[in-house]
Amino acid sequence: MNLERKEVLVSPADLDRQREFEEKIKAMFTERQAHPVACVDTFGCQQNVADGQKLMGMLAACGFTFTDKPAEADLVILNTCAVREHAEDRVFGNLGALTHAKKENPEMVIALCGCMAQEERVSQRIKKSYPLVNLVFGPHALWKFPELLWQVYESRKRVFSVDDEHGTIAEGIPVVREKGVKAWVSIMYGCNNFCSYCIVPYVRGRERSRDPQCVLQEVRELVESGYKDITLLGQNVNSYGNDLNLGYDFADLLADIDKIPGEYLIRFMSSHPKDATKKLFDTMARCGHVAKQLHLPFQSGNDRVLKEMNRRYTRQQYLDLVNYAKSVMPGLVLTSDVIIGFPGETEAEAMDTVSLVQEVGFDALFTFIYSPRPGTKAADMPDPASREEKQKWFDKLLEVQNGQSAALHAAYVGKTVRVLVDGKSDDEKFPLASRTEGNRLVRLKGDERLIGQFIDVKVTDSNTWALYGEPV
Ligand code: SAM
Ligand code: SF4
Ligand code: F3S
Fold first, then answer.
1. Interval 250-266 mean pLDDT
2. For a Cys staple, 378 with which of 63, 75, 186, 197, CB 3.0–4.6 Å?
3. Is residue 347 part of a domain?
């Protein structure tokens, strides 16, 4: 289902109103001669990190400065993730600790936002059992944050904004970006895929793509202000543009971004295999700014499990895609997401996942044990395998992948590679951190003045997780 564009875009007048609320909050603090400090604690994926940067942008406009110590803050925001039970447990743990801090500082305002806030089960629990939480709002209400915060300060009542919506696009929200060379750009929001295990479509609404011109303008500004490693974000960037009806797809967007002059790399995540096309891989191969790196989650190597997951591709189709991508981009760095222990999965089926990993030779994997998400289809499926069994399959997968990562990394030793030095490392002997075009971590000897530059380095050593080297 496509949404009407006019229903999707938040109007400039509505956005202007939010800027007015920012001014009101700022004036209130000025009048009180207060210097408010906020702590924004973000969990989950890069989309949530990008949302956290918008929250900080709006807070800066309200006059806040920032701390990463919740106990020192006047306002604490937990920007949460709902993708696995463990992520939610951590947030409830943090909330417990915060309510303790609030007893010391009764003026502290506590807000919970992000994907968990959009789950009715969670917002009800906060309403009943966490009375010290002042503000709860889901991703759909992010753009209205200044207004919601004003309501909290003005009324001193608890505010909940968690209506279930298809979702909107709000352009022009201020952003506080991390200093350095890396930046995130959401090109679309939401997800239409309803993989049977996944909560994201329920909390992030339907797919909606930003206008290409807005994305291009943002990337242009980032390149001009010195960002060099820019990642385009969406739950499935391969369906970018489907809702725009412009005959313009993700490959077209990449090709247009690539025309922006400057020294920078473009990455993107995530790609859904069912929508990945030869056109996309051909475009990647052709575009000099597009990193030859692909994060293409496959989730399972078994066709029955893939069908139950509602992934809409087969093992063979996945292999064909990867082989095509490798054929047009020799040296392509490949990563993926995998779930072990989907309801009803047998040991033999889990081993199909392990054999796919062996067959493809991924540079790295993000591996998860299935976590039931209430409200999703899979949460109601029979799940007879024990946690111990699943752990055994998971350990086998890790053993195979770690061996592969170590071997692929070892093959770099002795070679000279181009890297972007992006910060300091925690290793005294190799004080700099850098990334190859394929996003492999290289710990480096060298001077801090190299941070922010593309340089050639000789790889001298490696392990499962990183490469080590020195500038040539
Ligand atoms: N949209 C991306 C895609 O489809 O490739 C994935 C986004 S999701 C936030 C990141 C990863 O979390 C998924 O690829 C999947 O491996 C994992 N995941 C999602 N739901 C899960 C669940 N219920 N239990 C365990 N892992 C899960
Ligand atoms: Fe979740 Fe599937 Fe959407 Fe990814 S594509 S966010 S796994 S429903
Ligand atoms: Fe988590 Fe929401 Fe991202 S559920 S993984 S923060 S989209």
1. 98
2. 197
3. yes
